[in-house]
Amino acid sequence: MTAVIACPQEWRETHQYWGGPDCALIQLYPTFAVIEHAPKMLYLNTSIRGYPHGLRAGSDPRKPLLSVNADFDSFTFQGVPYTIQAIEVVLLYYLPTDQCLK
User: Fold this and answer.
1) Residue 45: which of 23, 27, 25, 67 has the closest Cα?
2) 3-class DSSP state for residue 94?
3) This protein's superkingdom (predicted)?
4) Tens digit of pLDDT for each residue in 5-54?
5) What is the DSSP letter of 97?
6) CB atoms within 10 A of CB 43
């Protein structure tokens, strides 16, 4: 199972869900599918007490579609548990069309 969390903003740690309208959760393997595309669907908390620790994606805070545990060694995707084999962070930068060099 391979998934992508896409976010055009810098990641931030907070106890609240955040993210702009271009955030998305995408499944790459075994099938390609855009699982969700919505604002305020991202969550990252590694230290704030009284709130769940880990990384989450999904617009329903009570039932996230993707939930990575605090140790980043396992996750659940749509309720199915998995062991993490690898995590890759890719930073992509783009210029709006009117700012591209011609």
Assistant:
1) 67
2) coil
3) Eukaryota
4) 999 888 899 999 999 999 999 999 999 999 999 999 999 999 999 999 99
5) G
6) 24
pTM for the full predicted model:
0.84
Structure tokens at 97: 């069309």
Distance of alpha carbon 15 from alpha carbon 29, whole angstroms? 30
Helix (H, G, I), strand (E, B) or coil at 46: coil
Residues in the chain: 102
Rg (CA), the chain: 15
Q: What does the DSSP 8-state code read for residue 48?
A: -
User: Hey, what are 70's tokens?
Assistant: 């605090």
Alpha-carbon dihedral 18, 81, 62, 89, rounded to 10 degrees:
0
